[in-house]
Amino acid sequence: MPFDSRVPAAPAAEGSAAHHRAVARWLLFVAGLVWIMVAIGGATRLTGSGLSIMEWAPITGMLPPVSDAEWNRLYDLYRTIPQYQLVNQGFGLEGFKQIFWLEWIHRFWGRLIGIAYVAGLAWFWLRGQVPAGYRGRLLLLLALGGLQGAVGWFMVASGFDADRTAVSPYRLVIHLSLAFLLFGVLVWTAMTLLRPRPEGAPVPPALRRLVHAAAGLAVLAMLAGGFVAGIRAGFDYNTFPLMEGRLLPRGYWVLDPGWKNLTANIPAVQFNHRLLATATLIVAGWAAVLAFRALPRGRVRGAVTGLAIAVALQYALGVATLLAVVPPWLGTLHQSVAVLVLTGALLAIHALRQPPPPAGSG
Questions:
Q1: How far apart are the first and last CA of the chain?
Q2: pLDDT by residue (tens digit) across 82-93?
């Protein structure tokens, strides 16, 4: 019967769409866990807790110390590194426990992300519900997650060197960049599953260029912020908008070779972060104005406006963090809202995608 043979087509399409939505929700859930991980990482760094665990034990490390003997063993290990000898000497076992627990939570949360991702991937894979063309990307995300864990330990290990009381700022920036990349691929993949085709009115090319520029500047500002955190540059020049009464601070370009000023010179690193953040704010704001003028009310205009609002919020938090001389709670919030800016950029770029040319047009 011809009619009967065509009936399953609609349910099959509906089932495929349902699988897409289910996979997208799982990916967004994992992305939310990564966002929390970034926040915990910021708190760990700002409280000096990241070097308190000197062993990389991916499996056994899931369980915290439960005996006095184990606590003392770990404390004795910590007392061998420069951070204890130069910063925390004599703060006792109770003081060690305070920094230990935050780092343990940070690592436990990373393991939780891995479990949530592997379990979800296995569930959809074994049930044959992974959307066509997405297996490679989902495996890439798994590899990125494993790489992030390894880079995290690579970063922490740099803090055990004889001349350090903190981790290498270069390794810190690599670790933070990978977290942003992992979050970005998770969110982009989920959005593409939910909205595979561009929607809405035609978008002026100038608006698309502005949004892409704002997103690029935001990423550069985040990387510059990583170096601000890595060399603790936020504890100097705690005035705004001038730095010791000058727009361009003294000593901006004093290191040799010159490129080191971009990563290791406190006046230059902080100034560059301010400059990139200000440029991001201006371009994102300009994009929002253009969107209001050129686009009707809807998802596309809302996404561009949301990006501008996120950037403005992050800018205000950055200034507040600087003026307050980087209290841990405010610094953690500032790092967390950076992920909101990244989310806003992804949503805006995704909404502004160009539709494919009409069939037969070429």
A1: 39
A2: 999 999 998 999
In contact, 226 and 176? CB cutoff 8 Å: yes
pLDDT digits (tens, 9 = 90+) for 185-207: 999 999 999 998 887 668 899 99
Look at residue 8 and tell me whether its pLDDT is greater than 70. no
Q: Three-state SS string across 116-169, please?
A: HHHHHHHHHHHCCCCCCCCHHHHHHHHHHHHHHHHHHHHHHHHCCCCCCCCCCH
Burial 82-98 (b: 16+ CB within 10 A, else e): bbbeeebeeeeeeebbe
Other beta carbons less than 10 A from residue 251's beta carbon: 12
Q: Which helix (H) or strand (E) holds 347?
A: helix 328-351
CB 300 within 8 A of CB 351: yes
What is this structure's pTM? 0.92
d(CA 138, CA 64): 31
d(CA 304, CA 347): 8
Compute the distance between CA of residue 58 and CA of residue 308 in angstroms, rounded to an integer. Answer: 40
Name the one residue in this structure whose structure tokens are 């994102």: 284
DSSP conformation class of 323: H
Confidence of residue 11 (pLDDT cuts 50, 70, 90): very low
Residue whose C-alpha is closest to residue 307's, from 219, 211, 187, 224: 211
3-state helix, strand, coil in the chain (%, to 5): 75, 0, 25
**pLDDT beyond 50 at 359:** yes
Q: What element of type H or E holds 70?
A: helix 68-78
Number of neighbouring beta carbons within 10 Å of residue 233? 25
C-alpha pair distances (Å), 86 with each of 83, 97, 281:
5, 18, 40
Question: Exposed, middle or buried by CB within 10 Å (0-12, 13-18, 19+), for 57?
Answer: exposed
Give 246's strand partners: 243
Query: Across residues 92-117, what is the average pLDDT?
Result: 96
Question: What's the CA gap between 295 and 203, in Å, rounded?
Answer: 7
Mean pLDDT of the chain: 92
Residue 4: the pLDDT is 41
Which position has the token pair 């004795």? 76
